[in-house]
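Reminder to self: keep the SMILES exactly as supplied, no canonicalising. Ligand is S-adenosylmethionine.
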Amino acid sequence: MAAPVQRDQELDLTIDSLAFGGNGVARHDGFVVFVRRGLPGDTVRARVTKVQRRHAEAVATEVLAKGPEHVSAPCAHYPACGGCRFQDLAYDAQVAAKERWVADSLQRLAGLPEPPLEPIVPAASHFHYRNKMEYSFAATPDGAALGLHKAGRWDEVLPITECWLTTDLGNAIRNRVQEWAREEKLDAYSQESQEGYLRHLVIREGRNTRQALVQLVTARGERFDRERLIEVLTEFPEVRSIHWSVNRGVAEVTNLPTELLWGDEAIEEDIGGLRFRVRPNAFLQTNTEMATRLYEVAREYAALAGGETVYDLYCGIGTIGLSMAARALTVWGIEISEESVACAIENQELNAIGNAAFFAGNVGEVLRELRDRAGEPDVVVVDPPRAGLAGKALKRLGEIGAPKIVYVSCNPTTLAGDLKRLTDVYGYTLTRARPVDMFPHTPHVECVALIERAAG
Ligand SMILES: C[S@@+](CC[C@H](N)C(=O)[O-])C[C@H]1O[C@@H](n2cnc3c(N)ncnc32)[C@H](O)[C@@H]1O
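Structure tokens returned for the bound complex:
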């Protein structure tokens, strides 16, 4: 049967719910249409952008009637900016949708009709929660501007004057760097022509320590006066660390080698009573306040009594493992980024924790070696990137067969897929799971899962 809609057709649709990823779900003559910028309860006019056999995609061009959960967005850059997807959806509706996405994933992809889900932990702060922002430079008639990508566009930057996800300090530093760029008559790099100089600005903040790290990313060559940049940035007493990176390639990346221009190599952050050093390229959960809550849930699920051998896989700068060390016999961390491992080792020393060790390596490749060195684990904490337990990681984890796995996930679909394999192939059972909202106004949701295996 042919689809009842055509590309570029305009439809009036009532949005029923939010699909995983943040698009509204509507039906036109029973045919499913995913509507970008469609909020549940709204009736919208939408233009069809893509038609497939079982569904179509559309973008809302006008809200004809607002639903009860449609609120006004505070940010002047919304909805043009790609940083937030649904600032205009009441926060309660956002967390309800995220809770449903996790439940759906576990039901459909892990095959669990009634997953043992505990209520979502909502974010403590709905705005100003990020500790890291990555801005791009763009050319404007007034000179170089700093901004974020436009919604749905990787090739266009929207200049930002006040972002609601960062702090007043973060906004002030970004605006001051933009002023500096114009005073110094430095031009923005263009992705299209591959000409120009200024590429990105990264600002990281120790939210509990009030320390900031700034990383400027340019095209090749030193075309700015270092002393002047340092003078400008040190107008902010919070700035402790200023780095410069050169991106010689075409890809828009910021995880590049850095040269320290001024101050300390790293800044520090306090999480859950421990101190963590963070270097420019080291991983740190970008919402400090909710990372504390996330780790509390992970510790609750691990339920350590003091005699356990704990593996902290995908350990970043050691945050989870070190936060468990006081209640474990030993903690062993594995992490692929050498910069993060260097921080983890420093953090262990900084907190005078004697029963933890951290190693650089790919989890799938080094897990057997770790077992030879550390012995059988009682609890394995895994906190992989969005792709989940990729490569040989899941197989090796299944073979080790620890009684308890605490899986900290930033992607419920890969969590569910991994869980299905751990259940079907390695005899594990999901016993508890709890979503945590770290990123209000975005479609991201974290989830902590306790996966257990009976002895024998
Ligand atoms: C979601 S972060 C978690 C970090 C840490 N647990 C935390 O809470 O801050 C995932 C980490 O896994 C690391 N990683 C990615 N792939 C890896 C692999 N194959 N083996 C080891 N670590 C990996 C990344 O560098 C990153 O630090």
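Points to follow up:
The CA atoms of residues 307 and 329 lie 5 Å apart.
The domain at 98-124+287-453 is CATH 3.40.50.150 (Rossmann fold).
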